[in-house]
Write a structure and sequence with these properties.
This protein is of the alpha+beta class. The chain has ten helices and 18 strands.
Amino acid sequence: MLTRISNTPRDYAWGSMTLIADLECREPSGRPEAEVWFGDHPGSPSEVHDGTGRTLDEWLPAEAAAGDVPSRLPYLLKLLAAGAPLSIQAHPSKAQAEEGFAREEAAGVARDAGNRNYRDDNHKPELIVAVSDPFVALAGLRDLDATRRLVDALGEGAQELRAHLEGADAEEALRRTIGWLLGEAARTDIERIIAAAVGGTSAEFAAELALARELAQAYPADAGVVVALLMNLVSLRPGEAIFVPAGVLHAYVAGLGVELMAASDNVLRGGLTPKHIDVGELLGLLDAAPSPPPILTPVRLDDTSQFFDAGVPDFALLHLVVDGDSASAALRGSAIVLATRGSIRVTGASGTSVELAPGQAALATADEAPLAVDGSGELFIAMPGDA
């Protein structure tokens, strides 16, 4: 089956007032529009345009009983529009999620409780591809020598931060420092470091300090402003991507992107939020090893398409750009097609076609492969990964 699906934007406070509306060539709603979910996640399942009025979480189990269709999708595809920075966060591995979920279930913690860490037993690796120019993010922990240079530029107000970053073991120094910032440092300590960052100057780290000033204004005295100083600042051009595996700290800062993740709600926060922060749980799953930004380079398939394969079984992403020509798209199982530019016609093996404008999406079951793509524009196709 090949059919249109749709959803309404979620109005999280950090969402952009204009980015999704501009993509869809409509007037802004007057509310922040943060994410549009394309999938069967029960938190906001897509509506299926097949005349039945069902949502995708209702449609898939019904179709699975009658044919070769999965009862659940292993992934969730989103349009994400950040008008303000999201919280710093990390996600568990599959084993960590299973253990944590079972532990909180046994303890009787309500799944919707504010202090709940594990709302399901799944991991949540994430891939995001920039649509806007730029898309800005924080991702992973910066090389420690570089971070020490940044902190040195802040002067006396950051001396205590510099002291916590000492040591030959970079991973241990960073883990210890994050634990201190989030769990032990006094408010006055945090305010002193933030003031040093706001007033600091550095040619090498001008962008990082500019972001610190922005974060300090949005999140006064939040330890996450200092945690952000330890992280890689990434500016993506359209079509560039980062992949965030388990344990890696990240925060999306500004811009519009296509995000693809495993279907999970498990989030351990590390600042820039009024929500619950479980410092011990975060440190237990945190990957504190310094590393370059986690850029994911796609595999170029031909003149029209490139393939983002993060090496996880939950998802992979095909990116196509057509300019009045035709392309063919192979599928791995049931897929979701999302247009982001131009006017695209997608035709399945059954002969069914859908026309997609920017921001519009369709569900293609595996028996519709390969898909024929015609028109002029850009689209993304989410599908299961290679198990």
